[in-house]
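tool_call: predict_structure(chain=1)
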Amino acid sequence: MFRSVITLRPAIITFCAALAFAGLPSAAIGQAVPGVAGALPTLAPVLERVTPAVVNISVVSETPAASNPLYNDPYFRRFFDLPEAPPPRQRMSAGSGVIVDAANGHVLTNHHVVSNAREITVTLKDGRRLRAELVGSDQATDIALLKVESSNLVALEIGDSNRLKVGDYVVAIGNPFGLGQTVTSGIVSALGRSGISNDGYEDFIQTDASINPGNSGGALVTLDGRLIGINTAILTPAGGNIGIGFAVPSNMAVSVMNQLIEHGEVRRGRLGIGIQDLTPDLAEALQLGELRGAVIANVEPGSPAERAGLQVGDVVTAIDGHPVQGATDLRNRIGLTPVGSTIGLTIRRGDSEQVVSAKIAAETGTSADLSGTPLDGARMRDASPPEAQQAGADGVVIESILPDSPAARAGLRPGDMIVAVNRSPVSSVADLRGAIAGQRTILALELIRDGGRLLLVVR
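tool_result:
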């Protein structure tokens, strides 16, 4: 059976919706629904309070024009006075967002909604249209943060996604197919879903509340009106809802948001351990009974884990008192813990249990994306000592370029080493970010490519 996982992008179709509570016993509905109009249970009182915090987002981006072989002929271009490449085409898309801080105008949405955006417009429920600024974006969790300037904004109260249980009623609010604000309802179908995409930090809430293209970045709300998820993806054979939707838990979204506000990016932490799930067979072999957690498979020499005294075979069962469900859960929580923080790991070693304190260090040797900058779409890393020695300068190496991204359209290539921006030397990704901060007009990048130096202008 064919199936695919897609992020939620808009299209125009005609469809019918079914009432989610149809067929449920009236007693069960009455227990779950916080409002009653006359003799009928209703969600209207909650929705009247929370829907003003959910916004529609429209994005203008650019995509390369269709290639014509004649453009590859320099004599043809010279004869007809044509540019080296046809001008890019403007592309419009739509999604959803959630106001989480009315005072500061902060709006949570998905990274893929605003990726490569040249212009972002937020439309409130009352019809106001506001220009939005991208504060920061994180591709690994698919979370982005926008900022708008306006008075009388309504923010959605954030709930604790760790308290969710399978079977809890939830409501999805967003902008499916570009139709405008739409509400659907269902239950939490599963928790801790991962492996939906090939990479990234995943701990999805699965729900059968109808989610469709255009719902991306919208709110998943409990029946008491608290945000517990950011709708992100659907599993579908044909591009529409089949009752399997996924949302980023609110706790993960808030962790990312806080780092985007403070740093403009997510600075991921590490302990220096290799981990694996504690499977029933492994638990039986280690005589651990029904214990749940993640097993440490290796400890890097000189790492924070080694300094903390962690050993191969230790089972991590909790972080700061919160249970660890498995290797994915542990990886997510370490990766999203601010660098420099000290955490308490509850471990099982043999027959004893103890709490070990470890300090989160910054990731090393990993690439960073330049989301929200003129070089959006490029993943970069600090040049290694051998690379710097060969080039004769420190710099930043481009590891990969997303197709149709601003970085790709600027002419950057994987393998390029950026050594200066507007004549100012850069020796690290942090230097590069500082050099391009606030530069929205033109950048002159000095590159080393295939052993030679060149200047590349980015507008």
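agent: The two ends are 46 Å apart (CA to CA). Proceeding to next step.
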